[in-house]
Amino acid sequence: MTSLETAARSILSNSIRAVGTPPNEYIYPASCSEGLVDTTTTLLAARALAKTGRSDLAWSFVKTVFSAQGSNGFLPRYLYLNFTDEYNTFTGAPWVEFMGSYPGPKLFPARPAGYLPQAGSEDSEGSRMKIHSSNTLSAPPSHATAVLDIFFLSNQTSTDVDNLLRFFHKLQRWHGFLHRQTAPNCTLNAEDEHKENPPCLLVKHPWETEVELTSPIWQHSLGNATFDMVESGWFPSFEIPGAVKNAYNYPDETAYNTALYLLDCLAKRSGDEQQHTDSRYRSSCPFAMVDVGFTALFAKSSQDLRRIQQILLDKHEFGIVKRETSWHEVTEAQEWVTRSGKMLHGLYSDAGGTYFNQIVNLTARDGSTGFESNHTAAIEIPDASSFGGLWGQIANETVIESVTQQLLQRSGSYSFNCGDFPLWSIGDCESHPSASIYPLLNYRVSRGLRYSKEVGLGHFFTTSTLDLMCGGSNSIESNYTCQTVGFASAFNATTGLALGSEECGLESTLTAAIALDMLIPDKPFKYASTPPISNSSVIFLIAVEMIIALGVGVACVVLSVHLMRRASADEEGDAFLELRQQVDAEEEEDLLVQTQDDSPRVDFAGWTRDLLSKLNPMNLIDGGGGQEETDLQTR
Fold this sequence. Notes:
47% of the residues lie in helices and 9% in strands. The protein is an alpha+beta fold. It has helices at residues 3-14, 39-51, 55-66, 143-153, 158-182, 216-221, 223-232, 242-245, 253-268, 292-317, 327-345, 397-408, 439-451, 455-470, 509-519, 535-598, 604-615, 617-622, 624-634; strands spanning 16-19, 24-27, 36-38, 78-84, 90-92, 98-99, 102-103, 129-133, 274-276, 281-283, 289-290, 348-349, 354-355, 358-360, 363-364, 371-373, 376-378, 436-437, 491-492. Residues 120-127, 190-196 and 617-635 have low confidence and may be disordered. Helix 3 (55-66) packs parallel to helix 5 (158-182), helix 5 packs across helix 10 and helix 13 (439-451) runs antiparallel to helix 14. The strands form 7 sheets. Strands 3, 4, 5 and 8 form a 4-stranded antiparallel β-sheet that branches. Strands 9-10-16-15 form a 4-stranded antiparallel β-sheet, with no helix packed on it.
């Protein structure tokens, strides 16, 4: 284990807290913000911990995030947990405006009725456990992606399947809210470029996005809100602490006050913060924007929600999940995938070769308060947040090629490859911008490139980001054994040094989670259409395997004995055969000898003597006596 991984694990483990009875486990974003739950930090930390084998803790984090879900399906960006026990001992988030550099619960008044958890639900507020939230300030919609990833990174036991089913219902309500209330009437026609139609998937405040307030995007898009703030003479009634002003993402007093002014406007008019008609978008506050990163997260989550649904359908076929999915739910999920994909594609500019945020050009309503518009305009600023569109798992190869080329360019207005480390927050290398590097954005771009099958470039972003945290040079062969480790939320693009001098700014839980996620490879994201394995099933399978192994062993012994007996019988048969062959050979030899002895012989010598005897004159005189003598001699 490298020193970088050890340090990341240490920060995560030291940042885990539990509040209430039963405990609500969470992980705070920084040491000066106990009781605060930031959705982005929590979901990425849950994913990283699932890689280490702690899927149980990951599911617990997700449960805490969903504990503040409204009855209308809404999920807030920030949660504030506090608990008072029977001894009046208080733990959790105090009632203050700021917690370090993060907004505190006092900035957000009580939520409207529809944004409160359902009465009587398991996640509703108890008498001692209090769950406050960021009112109507929405979380970036990455929840479905996190839930699916945790399931794939787990052992996919019956408990994991139960959690998948449980959060699927909540995710359906969340996505339903986004489609039906946030973007109900937008026109998804790529040819008209959304110029004269109700806009899609709006964000109402900069804190709903992952774009830092120091981005030049906000200088352009918050102009109307700043003007309205100045005209009304609004000024915050509390002092902004030094921890906020010294933070890396503090822009300036005017821009930050504008963000606070929008919070106040949304809180006072939360019941009528936005309305859609058939032709126009109406809002009570002077700001609305279509954000690339927010839309890309939504498009990817819509795809992953559909994948979760398919897994659960599979489980239902096996009788594991006792819930039928209606055909309407199936078609609706697929429509959401198509619709969110078109939303993201609508932000792509063919002329610019990249994605652009779109500002809603709100104008004051005639004869009434509030604002309205049906016109959006692209914010054509070379800002690195536009690369967040890669997260949406783009299928268009032309778009992928065009966007990745800008990542590698060193010259031109939209060049971002300006130094030793990627990704500079502001483009145009030739103007030497005062840029920052954000680990969160690098993480989104790195994984987005992998989703788009640009694996090599994605790997480069991963290793470069880790080298930056390690304080070393940008090297592909780095072993991440660091002398100095920095888990800052932002780094200076030129020097590579950590940004922010606040008390807890150099130990970001979010950055540590990103580092751990990058260091530990993902398991293959595979799903087999089989029932899940429970603990009892594992024990049963082990017992069956042992019985089978014993049976195989006995069979081997029996077979060995049989083979030995067979071999012995074969040897006896061979001996008998050899003996038989030997006997046959001897009998054949004797028969040959006997045949030779019984054969008639021609005695030429005897025949010759007999013939000469007969021709002897003396034999003719003697008559028969001579013949008898001759016969005796012959015998």
